[in-house]
Amino acid sequence: MIEVDNLQKAYRKLHAIKGISFVVQPGEVYGLLGPNGAGKTTTLRILATLLKPTSGSAKVAGFDVARESLAVRRNLGIVNGGMKVYDKLTGYEVLDFFGSFYDLWGPGLKERIAWAAELLHIEQAVLSKQVKDMSTGMQQKIVIARAILHQPQVLLLDEATAGLDVFARRALLDFVRQYAELGKTLIYSTHVMSEAEEVCDRVGFINKGSLVYEGRLQEALELGSGNLERAFIRRLEEAA
Amino acid sequence: MMNEILIIARKELLSVVRERRVLFTTLVLPIVIMPLLMFGPILLFGNAARQTQESVQKVGVVGVPAEVLEQLRKAKVEPIEIANPQEAVQNREVLAALVFEKGTFTIYGRLSGGATQSALVVEKVQGALRAYKDRLVTQELQNRGIGTDILEPFRLETKDASREQERAAGLFAFLIPYFLVVFIQTGGMPVAVDATAGEKEKGTLEALLAAPVPLVQILLGKGLAVFVMSLLSTLAAITGLLLGGGVLRSLFATQLQAVQNGENAAQLGGALALDPLGYLSMIVTAVLFALLVIAIMISLGLYARSFKEAQSYMSPLMLVMIIPILFLQFSDFIKLQDWYFALPFVGVVLSLDAIVKGSATATLLSLTWVSTLVFAGLALYLAYRNFQREDVVFRN
Predict the structure, then answer these.
(1) Are B7 and A11 a contacting pair at CB < 8 A?
(2) Locate the ABC-2 type transporter transmembrane domain: which residues (chain B) (predicted)?
(3) Degrees, nearest 5: CA angle A187-A191-A192
């Protein structure tokens, strides 16, 4: 579960987030939608304890992001479009490296790697290649596998399909739904509305650091006469 | 806690091991290049000097008496008449020139720019003139019925009173601090850059920071990897120096002996003659110095946005560290104060010099060790503070 309450983040004169609040329940995929620079990445980085909020609070899996950062990280996985893994290591070595921080060793680790590989359609042979020798899509799958290896309660996906080909993108979208069905809490952040339409249960529209709309996917679609992009533009115009 | 540090260090080292270029420049090259650096110039210059002594060179002459010309020929110099001595030497028509005018011999040679063949020929001409002068003086004394021993009323001897370790160290006394400083930095720099600014530039840092590992452990893990590479690189350089030096000494013993004019050839390269405590002191000093340098490099690397920026911060560090070594060359002219041993870099260089020469004391070494540890701690704290700053970590 994710609980965000009046969260704010300011960099000197720039207010990246201006007091946003929302809750995401277990088993739910929450779409955080907005244009580039709206504050999506900043919000997710705060939830992942990579940034500290200026004010307000947030809890991930019951732990406060500002005060219990290690506990939050144990229960969370994050992927963003620009995230990469070590190119000189093999896929297996990357997963071994990150898995060891979650007390995953030996047979337990092998099992988890097999589970993640199956879920993301990664062939075992690919895991023995160095990351630099993999395709962009496969590299991104390794990034995602690293984030889910410890089966976190909360998964944050920020523009996670950036750079993926059609097959890898399809695999990721299928994975998001499957992972939510395991009772996990997901935030799916993107500016591609069609992806959100496919995977999200609820959506929040964020613009210039403010949450301008929040509702169930069906309600949002009705707002845009069946089109999420139209709903997003309409809501932004109303808020302006 | 230690487990996470080791895991991170192992990952950093694994990345380095797979980078053959870095592996070659930090571990293989020092072994190959150190003996060449140490003995190559000596052997080359020694051979060139011997060949110059044994072969005949052309020397321009103006107004030189026949007796002197004969003396020059005996010294394996071929005199040829020229019009303008300065021009002839400048244009390399002759290696040196000798002019006799109004009772004065003037020798022309190209004496600037280090060891030149012209300088060696000038020495030959000087030798010939000295022999000619001695002959004239001896003849004149004999004509007056005076023995030549009047020219030497007493004997003059100079003895080296330096410690045995200092004598044995030879060039090592200067080179050990230099090599330690250079190789600790050059060995660690590629890993330090890759593990800090490199991670930022490649986009891998965020995934690591999202893992449940405290920042201090990430920092120590990266520091440990840099430390291992620094020490391996330094060991490679010293191994190259000792083993390569030994091989070259045995292969070219005659040439080295000839260059030294009969002195102990081993002194050319030097040989460490320390007791176990001396070696231990040297290792402790080097390790503490490595900690300081590594902490500074990691701090700079974390601040930098990219590989290039990190390298541009770290390269001047080498110049800063070499200043105390230059200072060391003139240390004999300065009355060393105890507090010099507590200065960053300066203390380490002075202590290493003292250890190699066998003049180190427990008090001065302790002063250097404690101060270096304190400075390393401060640098590490600065690196930690940099790592905590969002504007630094997400600077790219």
Answers:
(1) no
(2) 20-381
(3) 95
CATH architecture of B55-147: 3-Layer(aba) Sandwich (3.40)
What confidence score (pLDDT) does residue B162 get?
Answer: 77
A154-158 and A2-11 as β-strands: parallel, antiparallel, unpaired? Answer: unpaired
Smallest Cα distance from B91 to chain A, Å: 57
Going from N- to C-terminal start, the domains of chain B cover 2-46+164-393, 55-147
Amino acid at A235: R
Rounded CA-CA distance A5/B340 in Å is 57
Compute the nearest-CA separation of A50 from chain B (Å).
Answer: 7
Beta bridge partners of A23: A3
Retrieve residue B48's tokens: 């060139």
Q: Could you read off the pLDDT tens digit of each residue along chain B, which spans 396 residues?
A: 669 999 999 999 999 888 888 888 888 888 887 777 777 777 777 777 788 888 999 999 999 999 999 999 999 999 999 999 999 999 989 999 999 999 899 999 998 866 678 988 999 999 999 999 999 999 999 999 998 888 888 989 988 887 777 766 666 666 777 778 888 888 899 999 999 999 999 999 999 999 999 999 999 999 999 999 999 988 888 788 777 667 766 766 666 565 555 444 444 445 566 778 888 898 899 899 999 999 999 999 999 999 999 999 998 888 888 888 877 777 777 788 889 999 988 899 889 888 887 888 999 999 999 999 999 999 999 999 989 998 888 876
State pLDDT tens for residues B103-148.
899 999 998 866 678 988 999 999 999 999 999 999 999 999 998 8
- Distance CA(B181)–CA(B176), nearest Å, equals 9
* Confidence (pTM): 0.81
Which domains, from first to last, does chain A contain?
1-75+156-239 (3.40.50.300), 84-151 (no CATH)
Residue type, A8: Q
CB A205 within 8 A of CB A211: yes
Q: Which ipTM did the prediction report?
A: 0.93
Backbone φ and ψ of A221, nearest 5°: -65, -40
Give the mutation candidate from B1, B7, B11 for the A interface (greatest A CB count, under 10 A). B11
Pull the structure tokens for residue B160: 């080296």
Q: Is B1 at the interface with chain A, CB within 8 A?
A: no
Chain A residues whose beta carbon lies within 8 Å of the beta carbon of residue B211: 73, 98, 101
Query: Using CB atoms, which residue from B15, B203, B212 is nearest to A70?
Result: B212
Q: Distance (Å, rounded) from C-alpha B221 to C-alpha B18?
A: 18
Question: Do the Cβ atoms of B203 and B393 come closer than 8 Å?
Answer: no
